[in-house]
Automatic annotation (TrEMBL):
Domain Amidase, first and last residues per copy: 103-350
Protein name (database record): Amidase domain-containing protein
Record organism: Corynebacterium antarcticum
Recorded superkingdom: Bacteria
Gene3D superfamilies xref list: Amidase signature (AS) domain (3.90.1300.10)
Cited SUPFAM superfamilies: Amidase signature (AS) enzymes
A family per Pfam: Amidase
Length: 521
C-alpha cells in the first residue's frame, strides 16, 4: 500500500451550537463496495499509480527556485513544528522558527510534489503565489495573533474562480475558460493577506454530471483518493480535494462549496474539520453553480478556530462571543461515551419529541434532487452570462459538448442531461425549496419548545436541511493520523446542522462540542 512520508493529525474534537441545529454522529463505513471506479482502459489505479488519460498535471517548474532553496532539514523542521497544530498554532511555530512566507509556500508545494501525482488532491498551482509570498516577505510581515491568515497558504475548490486560472469545475468543457476576476471568496482571502496557491480537485461539476461516477473524479484532475486507504475508502465529494488537501498537509486552509453534503461528507471521510455557510451569508459570485438558490461556500481546517478564521476572511462572518453556559441537545441515538463527554461540557442530552421526529422525516422525503435538476439550467445560464465560459452559453451547450466528446465523460452524463428535460418546472422546484424552508423553521421551533439547540444522533447527517439555507459543520472526535486503523478513522465525527442560517452561532456550538473531547481520557 502506498503511504505518505509525513504523519498527518486532525485535532481531537466534538462540538455544539448556540442556535437551533442538528448534530449527527457519523458512521462512515469503509470498504463498502460503492467506489464505482474504472481501473482499465484509460484508467490505471493500483498501489503506486493513479492516472486517467487526458488528466492535467501540476506544473512545478515556476516553483523550482523556492523548492531548491528549502533544504530537506528545514522542511523536516517545519513539518515537526506543524504536526498536530491548527492555523494559529502553525502561525506561532512560524514566528518561533522564523519561517518566511516563501518558505511556508515551498513547504506545502514540496508536500504536493511528493505525493499529489498519486492522491490527485490539487488540480493546479498559481505561479503568481510565489510573487505574493515574496511581496509579504519584502514587507517583513507574516501571520500574527491578530492576523493569522496573513501569509497563510490556502487552496480553493476547482469551481471557485481565481483570476488567471481556468474555472472549469473539473470539466474539459470549461477548461479553456480562464477567470478574468477573482471570486468573492478569493477576494476576501487576498484582502486578509492569504497566499492563494491554487485550485483543488473535485467531483466534476460538483457531482452533478452523473450518478455513476466515483466521488472525487474529474476529467481534468483525475481520481482524487482518500489520504489513508486510497484503494478502498470512498473520499466522498464533491469538495474531495479540499478535504484531502488538509489531511495530506498541502495547505493551511482550504475552501469548497456545498449544495447538499459536498463539504460535510468529504470532511467526515478525511477526518478533518469542515463547515458550510448558511445560504446568503457568503457571496457565491465567481462560483460555477449547481443551483444558485442553494449553493454556499465552505471551509476546511484543523480546528473550529480555523473555520471561524476562514469564514471571517472569505465571507465577512464575525464570530460570536464564546460562552460556557449550559446547553441542551436532543438525543437521536448517541454513544454513551459521547453523552458523558457532552455532560462534562455542560451539554444536557434529552429525548426527541414525536412531532420533531416526524418533521425531520418529512424533510428527508422532499424531492430535493428533482428540484436541483430543475434549477441547474437557469443557474448555469446566469453564471455563463457573467463569467468566461469558452463557447458555452447555456446548459444545452454544456451537454452538447459532452455528447460530442464522450471521452471527456467516461462515466456518462445522465444527471446533467436531465436538466434539459426535467419533469419538474422551475416554479415547482421553488415550491419544494420553500417547503424545505418551512420544515426547517418548524424543526427550529420544535427544538426551542424542548429548550434544545441541536439534534445529536448516530447517522450520516441531514444534508436535506440545506433546502432551508442551514449552516452545517463537522468535527472529528478522535485524533486521526496516518497510522490510525482504517476501520476506526472516519467513524467518529459529529455533524452539526443549524436549523437557521447563522454560521457564526453554528461555529460556537462546534467549538463547544470540540471542547468536550470525549476520547481524551
Amino acid at each position: 500500500m502506498r503511504t505518505i512520508t509525513r504523519f498527518v493529525t486532525a485535532l481531537v474534537a466534538i462540538g455544539v451550537i448556540a442556535v437551533s441545529g442538528v448534530i449527527t454522529y457519523n458512521t462512515l463505513s469503509s470498504r463498502d463496495g460503492s467506489l464505482q471506479r474504472h481501473a482499465d482502459g484509460d484508467f490505471t489505479l493500483d498501489e503506486e499509480v493513479n492516472t486517467y488519460a487526458g488528466q492535467t498535471e501540476i506544473d512545478y517548474a515556476p516553483y523550482d527556485g523556492i523548492l531548491s532553496d528549502l533544504s530537506p532539514e528545514r522542511r523536516h523542521q517545519i513539518s515537526v513544528a506543524f504536526e498536530g497544530r491548527d492555523l494559529v498554532g502553525r502561525a506561532q511555530a512560524r514566528r518561533e522558527l522564523g519561517v518566511t512566507n516563501t518558505e511556508a509556500l515551498a513547504y506545502y508545494v514540496a508536500n504536493m510534489r511528493e505525493s499529489n501525482s498519486y492522491y490527485r488532491s490539487v488540480l493546479q498551482l498559481d505561479p503568481d503565489a510565489i510573487a505574493a509570498a515574496a511581496e509579504l516577505d519584502a514587507r517583513g510581515v507574516g501571520p500574527s495573533p491578530d492576523q493569522p491568515l496573513r501569509g497563510a497558504v490556502v487552496l480553493v475548490k476547482g469551481n471557485i474562480a481565481v483570476k488567471g486560472l481556468p474555472n472549469d469545475a473539473g470539466s474539459r468543457a470549461l477548461h479553456s475558460a480562464e477567470a478574468d476576476a477573482d471570486s468573492s471568496v478569493v477576494e476576501g482571502l487576498r484582502a486578509a493577506g492569504a497566499i492563494v496557491a491554487g485550485r483543488t480537485n473535485l467531483s466534476e461539476l460538483a457531482n452533478f454530471l452523473t450518478f455513476d461516477a466515483p466521488n472525487g473524479f474529474s476529467a481534468v484532475g483525475g481520481q482524487a483518493l482518500d489520504a489513508r486507504d486510497p484503494l478502498n475508502r470512498d473520499p466522498s465529494g464533491s469538495s474531495t480535494g479540499s478535504a484531502t488537501a488538509i489531511a495530506l498537509d498541502y495547505a493551511d486552509l482550504t475552501f469548497g462549496t456545498e449544495t447538499q453534503g459536498s463539504v460535510i461528507s468529504p470532511a467526515v471521510a478525511a477526518g478533518v474539520y469542515g463547515a458550510k455557510a448558511g445560504y446568503g451569508e457568503c457571496d457565491i459570485s465567481g462560483i460555477v453553480p449547481i443551483d444558485d438558490r442553494v449553493d454556499s461556500p465552505g471551509v476546511f481546517g484543523r480546528s473550529t478556530a480555523d473555520l471561524a478564521v476562514g469564514f471571517r476572511a472569505a465571507c465577512g462572518i464575525d464570530p460570536v462571543r464564546a460562552t460556557d453556559a449550559g446547553l441542551t441537545v436532543i438525543d437521536m441515538g448517541l454513544d454513551p461515551v459521547l453523552v458523558a463527554a457532552l455532560g462534562r461540557a455542560r451539554i444536557t442530552v434529552v429525548e426527541p419529541g414525536t412531532e420533531l421526529q416526524q418533521t425531520i422525516g418529512e424533510l428527508r422525503d422532499l424531492p430535493f434532487i428533482d428540484a436541483l435538476v430543475a434549477g441547474v439550467g437557469p443557474s448555469m445560464e446566469t453564471y455563463f452570462s457573467g463569467n468566461p465560459s469558452g463557447r458555452l452559453e447555456n446548459l444545452h451547450d454544456l451537454v452538447e459538448f459532452y455528447r460530442q466528446h464522450p471521452e471527456a465523460a467516461p462515466y456518462g452524463i445522465d444527471l446533467i442531461e436531465q436538466g434539459l428535460t426535467t419533469g419538474m418546472s422551475l416554479s415547482e422546484s421553488g415550491e419544494v425549496l420553500d417547503r424545505g424552508r418551512d420544515l426547517v423553521d418548524k424543526i427550529n421551533e420544535l427544538m426551542a419548545e424542548q429548550g434544545a439547540v441541536a439534534l445529536v444522533g448516530r447517522a450520516d447527517g441531514l444534508p436535506e436541511i440545506t433546502a432551508g439555507g442551514s449552516a452545517r459543520a463537522t468535527v472529528p472526535l478522535i485524533p486521526v493520523t496516518q497510522n490510525l486503523a482504517v476501520d476506526v478513522y472516519g467513524k467518529y465525527a459529529v455533524t452539526i446542522e443549524a436549523a437557521d442560517g447563522d454560521t457564526a452561532a453554528l461555529l460556537e456550538i462546534a467549538r463547544r462540542v470540540e471542547a468536550a473531547r470525549p476520547f481524551d481520557g
